[in-house]
Amino acid sequence: MSWFSSEEIKRLLALLRQCSSGLMIWLGALLWLQSATAIEIKGRGSIPASVLNNINLHVSVFSSAENCVISNRYRKKVWAAVDTALKAKGYYKANIQSLEPGSKTDCDSWLLEVELGPALLVNSVQIALLDQTDNDPLLRQINSRFPFKTGDKFDHKLYEQWKSDTTGNALLKGYFDFKFERHEVQLRADKLSADIVLEVSIGSRYRFGELINLPDPDDRALIIALRPFQPGDEYDSVVLNQFTEQLKRSGYFTSVFVRPLVSQAIELQVPLEVVYQFKPANEFNIGGGVSSDTGPRAKFSWQRSRLNKAGHSIETELSASFIEQSLAARYRMPLQDPARNFISLQLGLKHTDDNDTQSNILTLAAKRHWITQDDDWQRIAQLRYNRETFTQANAEEQTTSLLLPGITYTRFRSQGGLTPFWGDKQFLSIEGGSKSILSDIDLLRFIAQSRWLRSFGNHQWFARAELGALSSDNFAEVPSSLRFFAGGDQSVRGFGYETLAPIDKDEQLTGGKYLYTVSVEYSYNLVPDWRLALFADAGNAGMSLFDDVATGIGAGVHWITPVGPLRVYLARGNSSLESTWRIHFSLGASL
Predict the structure, then answer these.
(1) Per-state percent for the chain, helix, strand, coil, to nearest 5
(2) DSSP-assigned letter for residue 436
(3) 354 exposure class (CB count in 10 Å sphere: 0-12, 13-18, 19+)
(4) How far is 526 from 568, CA to CA, in rounded Å?
(5) Sequence-ordered strand ranges (E) for 335-457
(6) N or C, fewer C-beta in 10 Å, the chain?
């Protein structure tokens, strides 16, 4: 009774040889990294680094000759390894000489001297593409990316890499029947030349098929709405990855991926299976934080990420600190990509009691959010109704209603998660209202912010700048929330939160028409999880630009915690009205 056929035994032995060969290469590489190579290679003349590295990799599997005795067997194995490494790079006529160790102290440095000689050159290239049209894009790539032409030095590794890359690219583009019908390198070692003969069958390009295994019609409708292609479109793995990423970004799923079922293709159309798990119907989150600006703060949110088959969602958030309390609700309607292209309807209530400001705000807004395919800027076009009852300084309480159309551009990039080491954040917004269109006053407001974080080894630089301006025919009726104030952890350190602004005769803050701040901070990673920092801030809020600039300088320390960096600073603030010392602290990324 035989358990395996002779053909199966042959395949098993071939597999074992491949595994053992791979194991030897990995073991050799490990020995080369962990200890000095037993054999030193020296070039007679210049040897390209790629050739030398290939020789070292092949001989690194050999240990030192025992008792400084180089046996014939040992010598032949080393010679064969060097010869193989040289031929792989196209050198068939290299001259190798041995300088054997003369004493036991030299046992770990057996010297081989290599003279490369002339390289193997490409004599001819014949590429035949079978049953293809001249306008096939893959055909053009095969011809344009082939690494050799007549007279070039031949490199076996480069040749094999091209074949592997070409096959991989064909599969990624949906040419699942692609294969090399013939691939030969005809060597003429005596003449140091090679003739390359290739016959390539590209086959037909497959196309996207239908989504399968989606029995629930609501699930199917939602997922199809997020699909960036139609059945019958040419298969492209990049587009398929975009589909997967769009599903992940949507916020509907705890896990999701899409896999093509090539073996089930019918008439060159590949069915796609979406494997997914939706988020719970209701999600609740509790969070908090602390900073010297707002003191302790807490946040509670409830979200239902999927209300219907169209993918509408709703979210509410309650947040509170000593100076601000707010309640917000948002209803989101996706247009294509739920994370990047959608309409939101928002309702907000906010109470503020800070310094010389008391304010109660009701906000209703309709916003259109979108990101174009070519860049990563988020655009928001909005129509916002803002009704604010406020008391600023010693002025009488008043109520101002504004209908504010506007547009906002934002971009956020970051690397490093909760503790970023690289990133930037941009914000640009302009909005305005008119008495002729449901507003109590004429108003135009502009604000721009920029933040940059860059790291160079243990050195890290952070910079930020902010510029704001507003114009109104009646500044006294401009709501407190739209006036400008400076000072605090994220503004000019050395001063309290929003304590820099014009003041009235009773030395109470009135807010300004302009805002201008700039900051530069340098930090150094002294020991793991601890950084020392130096900073300089400048800016103010005023009735004119760059009027009475306040400054803040100081030093601090960053402690990298599992929930983000905790930053503590000692700052010296200086303005025309006062000079102060202040400690600032906050938890979270600087961006």
Answers:
(1) 20, 45, 35
(2) T
(3) buried
(4) 15
(5) 342-354, 357-371, 378-392, 398-415, 422-433, 443-456
(6) N
Q: Provide CB contacts within 8 A for 502, sequence distance 6+.
A: 509, 510, 511, 512, 541, 542, 543
pLDDT at 530: 96
Q: Retrieve residue 15's tokens.
A: 């597999």
DSSP secondary structure code for residue 77 in this structure: H
Residue 471 token pair: 């114009």
**Rounded to an integer, what distance in angstroms lies between the CA atom of residue 201 and that of residue 181?**
6
Residue 332 has which token pair?
């989101």
Give whole-number Cα distances, 164 to 18, 142, 239, 361, in Å: 18, 12, 22, 63
Question: What phi, psi does 62 have (nearest 5°)?
Answer: -95, 135
Strands (DSSP E) contained in 305-341 are: 313-321, 324-334
What would the pLDDT profile of 125-158 be if each residue is shown by its tens digit? Answer: 998 877 665 556 677 777 778 888 899 888 888 8
Of residues 135 and 239, more confidence is placed in: 239
User: What is the DSSP secondary-structure string of 184-240?
Assistant: EEEEETTTTEEEEEEEEE--PPPEEEEEES---HHHHHHHHHT-SS-TTSBP-HHHH
- The answer for 494, left when phi > 0, alpha when psi is -120 to 50, beta otherwise, is left
* Residue 106 C-alpha from the chain's centroid: 51
- Amino acid (1-letter code) at residue 383: L
Distance separating alpha carbons of residues 86 and 83, to the nearest angstrom: 5
3-state secondary structure at position 481: helix
CA atoms within 13 A on the CB side of 92: 15
- Rounded to two decimals, what is the model's pTM? 0.72
The answer to whether residue 30 scores a pLDDT higher than 50 is no
The DSSP code for 279 is P
| Nearest in space to 121 (alpha carbons), one of 143, 89, 99, 146 | 89
Distances (CA, A) of 219 to 214, 216, 247, 311, 341: 7, 5, 12, 10, 20
Structure tokens at 97: 């000489």
Express each pLDDT in 71-101 by its tens digit: 778 778 887 888 888 888 888 888 877 765 5
Say which amino acid occupies 53.
Answer: N
Q: How far apart are the first and last CA of the chain?
A: 71
DSSP code for 245? H
Long-range contacts of 499-502 (CB under 8 A, 24+ apart): 499/355, 500/539, 500/540, 500/541, 500/550, 500/575, 501/540, 501/541, 501/542, 502/541, 502/542, 502/543
Q: Which residues contact 512 (CB under 8 A, 6 or more apart)?
A: 483, 484, 485, 501, 502, 540, 541, 542, 543
Q: Which of 367, 380, 495 is nearest to 430 (CA)?
A: 380
| CA neighbor of 384 nearest in space, from 400, 366, 409, 369 | 366
Q: Are 465 and 518 in contact (CB under 8 A)?
A: yes
Q: Which pairs with CB-CB distance under 8 Å and at least 24 residues apart come from 322-325?
A: 322/294, 322/295, 322/296, 323/294, 323/295, 323/352, 323/353, 323/354, 323/497, 324/294, 324/350, 324/351, 324/352, 324/354, 325/350, 325/351
Find all residues with CB under 8 Å of 17, minimum gap 6, and list them: none
β-sheet with 269-278: strand ranges across = 207-212, 269-278, 253-260
